[in-house]
TrEMBL record:
Domain Periplasmic binding protein positions: 56-312
InterPro entries: Peripla_BP_I (IPR028082), SBP_2_dom (IPR025997)
Family the UniProt entry places it in: Belongs to the bacterial solute-binding protein 2 family.
GO MF term set: carbohydrate binding
Annotated compartments: Cell envelope
Gene3D superfamilies associated with the record: 3.40.50.2300
GO cellular component term of the entry, any: cell envelope
Residue numbers spanned by region Disordered: 22-54
Organism: Fumia xinanensis
Composition-biased stretches (Low complexity): 22-42
Protein known as: ABC transporter substrate-binding protein
Length: 340
């Protein structure tokens, strides 16, 4: 009888021990391969949530040109202004391509980021970006869009650049004259939105101004110089040139100076290049201005991420209007340390 009771007691103890192990939140190292596969393919949001004490992750493309180099510069500047320590308060990572960026996104999720600010290479990173939302981590998308969901989106206003530039040029010219309009088809919607908005405002408010289209291959000084040289030869009299990029404007300005043209009184730009800011400040005989689409807008995206982490309301879609920079206010944006 005693042997039977001992056997029964041992069985009960084994059962209790197994039940206790089964309640250990999946932390057992004895999980089968099929269980691990199921967990890896399950939506991250099932068992992940943002760590409010984690760093704000900033995931952007590597600096291949001036504007993108400015992104990293202004991002770090903003984080320091906010008193965030690198590593614990913020984590800035850059990548060369979509695959690298997708891997970095997963690393930032695993790191326990409190929020992620993402400037996508292209919308091909959308699948990886969705994992951020699935992990219940706030996602602030900057400049380029993704196809999935996001917490907030911030970008500059391409149509606004065209509209505000048209208003200024039209007013300066008194509603009369001829303007050469730069198109850069290789830039896709950037060129289309800026040029279409410029033309729409001109047709609406200054219908007597004649517009002459010309085209550049890309947003470079070399291309701006080449195409402007051609348009100056083709047009003996121009009152202004509407350029949609600061780098292009630098080339156009060189073409104007090389040709000795004094008829052109106004030249626009777009972006926020420190080199072009300097030209605005120094120019004589021609009035230069630009409409900002500055990499410094990344600061607004980082602030939005911090506000979300702190529990403050942030609008889902945020379009930042351009600031017109002229000789009168250019001193406020000059920054000798800026890489762009």
């Amino acid at each position: 009888m005693k042997k039977v009771l001992c056997a029964m007691l041992a069985a009960v103890m084994v059962t209790m021990s197994l039940t206790s192990c089964g309640d250990n939140g999946g932390s057992s190292s004895d999980a089968s391969p099929s269980d691990s596969q199921s967990s890896a393919s399950a939506p991250e949001g099932n068992n992940t949530t943002a760590n409010p004490d984690g760093p704000i992750a900033i995931v952007v493309p590597a600096a291949e040109h001036g504007w993108m180099a400015g992104i990293a510069y202004f991002a770090e500047q903003k984080c320091k202004e906010m008193g965030l320590e690198e590593g614990t308060g913020y984590k800035l990572v850059t990548s060369a391509n979509v695959n690298d960026q997708a891997n970095q996104i997963e690393e930032m999720i695993d790191l326990g980021a409190s929020a992620i600010v993402l400037l996508p290479h292209t919308d091909e990173v959308s699948v990886a970006a969705q994992k951020i939302m699935d992990a219940n981590i706030p996602l602030v998308v900057f400049d380029r869009k993704v196809t999935g969901d996001y917490t907030a989106y911030l970008a500059g206003d391409n149509p606004g650049i065209g509209t505000e530039s048209a208003k200024l040029m039209g007013e300066k010219l008194g509603g009369e004259g001829t303007i050469a309009v730069l198109n850069v088809p290789s830039s896709g919607s950037v060129s289309t939105e800026r040029v279409d908005a410029f033309k729409a405002e001109m047709a609406k408010s200054y219908p007597n101004i004649k517009l002459v289209d010309f085209t550049a291959d890309d947003f470079t000084q070399q291309s701006g110089l080449k195409t402007a040289t051609d348009v100056l030869v083709a047009n003996e009299k121009l009152d202004a040139i509407f350029s949609i990029d600061d780098e292009s404007s630098l080339g156009i300005l060189q073409a104007i100076n090389d040709a000795g043209r004094t008829d052109i009184k106004y030249l626009s730009g777009a972006g926020g290049s420190q080199t072009y800011f300097q030209k605005i400040d120094e120019a004589e005989g021609i009035e230069l201005f630009t409409a900002t689409y500055s990499p410094s807008m990344i600061k607004d995206a980082i602030q939005a991420a911090k506000d979300i982490v702190d529990g403050n309301d942030v609008a889902k879609d945020n379009i930042i209007p351009p600031t017109i920079v002229t000789k009168d206010n250019v001193s406020t944006v000059l920054d000798a340390n800026s890489p762009y």
